[in-house]
Amino acid sequence: MAEFLRLDGVQADAAARALPSEPVLEELASLYKLFGDGTRLRILTLLSEGEFCVCDLARLLGATDSAVSHQLRVLKQGKLIRSRREGKVIVYALADDHVRLLLQNGLEHVNE
Amino acid sequence: MAEFLRLDGVQADAAARALPSEPVLEELASLYKLFGDGTRLRILTLLSEGEFCVCDLARLLGATDSAVSHQLRVLKQGKLIRSRREGKVIVYALADDHVRLLLQNGLEHVNE
DNA sequence: CAAACACTTGAACAACCGTGCAAGTATTGT
DNA sequence: ACAATACTTGCACGGTTGTTCAAGTGTTTG
């Protein structure tokens, strides 16, 4: 086993055990990555207030339909939002309240 | 003012008000971006268990000193960690318990 | 002082990301 | 059926990101 500078074997084992499994870690990184973009963050914040169709989101953000649609796809693949058709329009909403919570947690940190 | 499809003026105003200010939003995105990388996430997880020098972190992660050092710099600029010299070695630690909390929140979401 | 060790830094590179554009699909209204 | 509207998709482009490598700084030890 490798040698450590400030750690004995027991501490090293404890540290290694603290790391989540590879797949969990990768999933966690992917989750945070979704929140790590201004446009996606804006979309999620709006959706935490209610449901919106693509073009209303785009107008509220001053972005193109295309840009918004691209990001909605990413967010949906990440299971952070869901969508349903309503006539001509497609309505997006947060997938669950957990997402709202994560958003709040981050905001609290920023306004420490 | 722009027209909306599913929103009246009142709803649109309420939605717009839900968006944090530009600088807050950008800071929030930057914060999440820091958590959105496997290596940084591993480092933060380890640091949530105690203090580590660069080379012990590198050994625990199976990464090069350089790669770890680069990421430590990013994390430090983001005020998520702090460091102090201790002889030949530089010891890193979480900046505050808030960081630990954010990490836990994310993990809870992944293990819904 | 010189060698060894711990760490940092800058440049270079490939990989990834967000957006705009143009063309596509789906639904509604005439 | 046709036009209009709402949205999606693939591609191309510029910009960012994470890593490696090599050279650097700072500290301790012989």
Annotation keywords:
alpha+beta; Arc Repressor Mutant, subunit A; 12% strand; three-stranded antiparallel β-sheet; DNA-binding; 112 residues; 6 helices; homodimer; 3 strands
Quick structural gist:
The structure is a homodimer of 112-residue chains. By secondary structure, the first copy, chain A, is α+β, with helices and mostly antiparallel strands.
Fold and architecture overview:
The structure is a homodimer of 112-residue chains. Chain A is of the alpha+beta class and 112 residues long. Chain A has a domain at 38-110: Arc Repressor Mutant, subunit A, CATH 1.10.10. Chain A is built from six helices and three strands; from the N terminus they run H-H-H-E-H-H-E-E-H. Chain A has helices at residues 9-18, 22-35, 38-47, 54-61, 65-77, 97-110; strands at 52-53, 81-86, 89-94. In chain A, strands 1-3-2 form a three-stranded antiparallel beta sheet. The longest helix of chain A has 14 residues, at 22-35. Chain A is elongated and about 65 Å long. The mean pLDDT of chain A is 95. At the A-B interface, helix 1, helix 2, helix 3, strand 1 and helix 4 of A face helix 1, helix 2, helix 3, strand 1 and helix 4 of B. Chain A binds a DNA duplex (30 and 30 nucleotides) through residues 5, 37, 39, 53-55, 63-74, 85, 87-90.
